Amino acid sequence: MVFTTTTDFKDATFLFAPPEFFDAKVSEDIIWPDVAFFPKPPHDKSKAENHKRAYERLSLMMSKLEKTHDKHMFFRLEMRARRALETGWRKFPAKAMNWFYDISCDYGYGFGRALGFWLGHMLLGAAVLVIPAPHNWAGVGNAFATSFANAHSFLGLNRGPLKTVYAQYAKWDWFNVVWTVQGLLGIMFLFFLLLTIRNRFKMG
């Protein structure tokens, strides 16, 4: 299969399987804008394996053509096909991680989604920290500041400007739980957010 001129897949619809370009030669001017539909990974493992292989090939082709965004599109589709292959309780952790990577940041490409999770978990943390705080504007402000500091513990704000506030929160029995959960999620969501920025602007 050889494509010697512009190949435009605008509004293309692939109902049952992705296109297979094994051993194909394509023009450098291959276009994948607004592809209408790629099929969901099938439950049948042999068919899901074929989907994965097809997307691997497409991703490699786009990489060689230095079409970064198209490459990442096929990488995301490949990852979803891989998730369909991960069956059984032994592969549940890998399947869960794959799903969470998809939901939280669209495999490192969904900037808005990653930003929403990053901000959302801090807002939720602040809402929880309002419970033991003084119910006034200062208490609300401290809750938001402490939530941000918890989510970015590497900044050391708890040992600096918020040292007194942390000493007050330490009296609350559940504070260490909130601090630990936010510390783990905060680093992860910040990493996802920075990853989406990197992928969007093709840095590195």
Verbal overview:
The chain is an all-alpha fold. The protein has two domains: 79 residues, no CATH class; 88 residues. 58% of the residues lie in helices and 2% in strands. It contains seven helices and two strands, in the order ββααααααα. It has a two-stranded parallel ribbon. The mean pLDDT is 93.
Oligomer: single chain
Helix content: 55-70%
**Overall mean pLDDT:** 93
Low-pLDDT segments, ≥5 res: none
The biggest beta sheet is recorded as: 2 strands, parallel
Give a short summary of the structure.
This protein is mostly helical and 204 residues long. The chain contains seven helices and two strands. Helix content is 58%, strand content 2%.
Characteristics:
204 residues, mainly alpha, 2 domains, two-stranded parallel sheet, 58% helix
How do the helices and strands line up, and which of them pair or pack?
Elements: E1 7-8, E2 30-31, H1 45-64, H2 68-85, H3 92-105, H4 111-129, H5 137-151, H6 163-169, H7 175-200
Parallel strand pairs: 1-2
